[in-house]
Write the structure tokens for this entry.
Amino acid sequence: MTTKSISLTVNGKTVDQEVEPRTHLADFLRHGIGLTGTHIGCEHGVCGACTVLVDGQAVRSCLMLAVQADGAEVTTVEGLAGNADDLSPIQAAFREFHGLQCGYCTPGFLTSLTQLLMENPDIGEEDLRKELSGNLCRCTGYAGIVRAALAAAQAYKEAAATGMGGSR
Amino acid sequence: MTTQMVGKPIQRVEDKDLLTGKGNFTDDIKLPGTLHVAFIRAPFAHARITGIDLDAARDLAGVHLVMAAADLPAPAKGKRILLQVPNPAIADPITQEPLVSDRVAFAGEAVAVVVADSRAIAEDAAEMVMVDYDPLPTVANLAQATAPGADKVHPHLADNVAARIHVGYGDIESAFRDAAHTVSVTLDQHRGTGNPMEGRAVLAAPNALDGGITVWSATQAPHILRRALVDMLEMAETDIRVIAPDVGGGFGPKVQAYPEEFVIPICAQMLGVPVKWIEDRREHLLCTVQERDQTWSVEMAVDAEGKLLGVRGRMQHDQGAYLPWGVIAPYISTVTMPGPYVLPAYDLETQVMFTNKVPTAPLRGAGRPQAVFAMERLFDLAADRMGLDRAELRRRNLIPAEAMPYSVGLIFRDGQPLVYDSGDYPRCQQIAEEKSGWADFPARREAALREGHYIGLGIANYVEGTGLGPFEGATTQVLPSGRIMIKTGAAGQGQGNRTVYAQVAAEAFNVDISQVDVELGDTGKIPIGVGAFASRLMVNAGSAIDVSAGTVVTKMKKIAAAAFEVSEDDLELVDGTVRVTGEQGPSLTFGEMAQMASGMPGYVLPGGQEPGLFATHYFSPPQAAYANGSHAVEVEVDPETGIVRIARYIVVHDCGRMVNPLLVEGQIQGGLAHGIGNAFLEKMRYDDDANPVTTTLADYLLPDADNVPTAEIYHVESPAPHNPLGVKGAGEGGTIPAAAAVVSAVEDALRPFGIQIDEAPILPERICELIDAARQDTQEAS
Amino acid sequence: MKAAAFDYHRPANRAEALDMVGSLDNAKFLAGGQSLVAMLNMRYAIVDHLIDLNHVTDLAGIEMTGDRLRLGAMTRQRAVKDDAALAARAPIFAAALDYVGHFQTRNRGTVGGSLGHMDPSAELMALATLMDAEVEVQSKAQTRSLSIADYPMAYMTPAIEMDEMITGVTFALPGEGHGWGFHEHAQRHGDFAICGVAALMELAGGTISRTAITVFGIGMAPQRARAAEDMLASQTPGDDLYRAAADALDDLDYTTDAMASAAYRRRLAGVLTRRALADAARRAGGDRR
């Protein structure tokens, strides 16, 4: 089986690489280019741990082939804050409200919530919980995650109001 | 003046790395030349292996090693995994082999291994391995295991009984003879899974220089794994280093040593390169230990005033095919039954039964949820029988706070008499009643029913032996930089141990936690240790840090007292210095003191002290620390579909003194989610031939954000008397009574139908069946 | 859990895609991949060639003309859910799409992928069955249209040939002012439903002029509840009527599997039909909530 060349942008940097067609995007990010912040939880699209942003949309990176990301702009948990030493509003809120324990599912929640809160910063708790049903966490019981998301929503609302896209 | 660190809801030191993708989980570790593994797993629950053809797999490009049991090198060949928790009750302590040599006893057991350039190639090769099986009769459940003339899980044994346990005290015959009321019930509880979001993971790297090996494992207990590896590989302890890096959740099943944790180091030694195996989710659901299935047939005797006289009965525990952690879980079940109640007489006969399923071993709660379920179901039943309020009957039997310490009359799993050390059980239930609006609820329930809503309120109490020994150790050291270094074997899997350990040390040295570094989970850093289970780390490791830090502080004061020519009592630790109290007199920074204590060539050490500012302490608790709590939960049930929604969840929790309330609440809420799963979602299903059928996360339902409400948590702090911090474990109290409380609430909501629920989880379909059956009964009666 | 090896092809247009699927052995189209890639990872599906349709430009799109709605095969599920004009004309689409997996899978998942995968609980299949859809398929040789009644062939297998591609699906929309109801039973939001019911209702002078009921998740493919539909014709909406309709569902096929028994599915079909009809009647009566 022949490999394919792909060229994509990951966290703002251009990446050119050869990939085997069967390699999914999660394995490519983790092992192909060493971005191990994206975690693999089930590899069949249920747990959401591997969620990344592809062209701004949250997707399961275990359900997308690396070769399909050719030409795409991918953002992983490593790239959510503009600067590597910063925390984005949702990352900061997770810390403040104890939205994580082992941290394994966390990248998937952070990327998912980034899309969710940027598109719908006015979301209420009931809808938020329903939208979060695509991400499983076994440690926290979700209370800290929900609190963090509702608290961070305000920051995304302000960003939307001032038109400051900037850091995710 | 003191920087109070213990007791504050401090944000975690772990979080920044984990939030920015800089965690270091086993699969994140990249060693040059690492090879990858796939296992060939049995597709039958019970079968004899009659032939294995590895040749085609060996010929595939990119494959480095294909091995079955017969190819295992000495000394591992022919060995089984060390049982580290033996018990005289066990008839034959049978554990797994690294690779099955002759007969598989559950579906998913590994019979061969492939090592290749990538996991994908390893899986390609695994598909080319041909194994011939001769299927044997299977034992799929307790009913089959105990039937007369049952097929046998292990043909060489006389029957399927793995162990018999009999516990009890008091005059049980009189209790039932004298009873005004007796109730009896048979309860089924089904098995669930751990399912940490990170599965198990093993990376092994041989050290060419000294012949040793380093093993990274997503384990809860690196020292326990090392001990098992020493036994299997017959190597010196010092030649095996086990490191638990960041571990993505554990919940019990990552405690014991598994076959893969031996096969991977063996492959690495054979090939002379690093070898890695990452458990995938299907493997987790097939091969990682599970827990909960037990059947209880129990009865309760109560006098006319509603005072408990006795509880007796039989319990059967579905052990699965092997005993990786002995009979710890069923034993804990048997001694948890009395709970927070004055129970004058108790008698329970337990049979631990082998079945052809993945073994059971402690899973968050560890046998306790089942016992609490049994006891609390009996209370609900007895209250209904007597026409008494469910909380009132419990209230009449709770052990009063003045009775502490309270001796139950049993021997706990730590080998010590079961003596509740502290706690105020009536107060906990009282708070749960008040906060849940217990007294007014019947009126609310009636009003809701008039609107067509079926709401119910349930309550359950528990006592949990936590902080089990034997010990945990910690080394505290003041570095020449002035920073504090803590080393302990006791690593967490997400609980925030670095943070709470740092809080304890920071308080001792009166510094901010940012001045403390914590190294965890590495057998190369501290020679002996035990591991993370039984909600034991804060009690054991926390106390070891407290004591060793105290020793170093004392030493620093001695040295400073000598240097300043003052009494030790006149010194204080402030801002990383030791100084004379209350004045701007002489002071020494921690860094200067560390330099002094390490000595100067040719000079005498100051103060007549041993060199170095470090101390190691191994803390051994004399007995368990007994945490307790009360849960109250309000549900709404749709009787047409059987769907249960939790409207409110109240937890009253006493884990002694809290080091970090933010993290304690995180443990409670997370444990609760697991308990809610056990109550009405999580059911690991097997078919009649013991083949697992829920092998993806689409079939095995873990609770999501929409199933688990944010609990209202209330704390009672009864300090533990047997450790210096006064702490008790907090990791499992959220889980233990949850199924009991939820089922009680569901039954309450469905009072108009008069159903009784005797099982957990209670699934929607079953709720509908019970309602239909009750209607049928009503119609036949009328 | 890694896929077996395959070759990957990325046609730029339909003609190339149809050439490929006609000439390559053991080839499969890759649409959104939200089911297929999971099956590949688990090796439940093993292919030699994967033909990625994500760069074929003329397969996506939402077109509404009168009472017809056409969805291009590569239209993302998210786009269907978020389409404002469609939400105004036929709100049942947005309601049903909300149950399709999770927002992350709807970002990638497609209409054609869902129809092609034919999971028994697929909401898009249910809507197609509810609205007498025509599925357009194309091969190198011909273009043809299948009525949804003829579309399912076997469990998770539509009646299309190996060299054919689904290009779109056309729904017959109910009249303006219609009422609708959509209910699913699953313990977690976004899970495969054990049973679901979709219903449409139009009223004329207070009586039911037209109704359609589809029950899904209960068997190989969604099923129209014809007996119940017939019974509702020309009747006045009301709880007793919905109850009678719920009783008229015995002739549907209900499966027993690891997740639920046929008897439980039958029970749910009745309950959800009552609820869906009540919603539909309320909305048809002008209460649009």
Residues 5 and 243 of chain C are 53 Å apart (CA to CA).
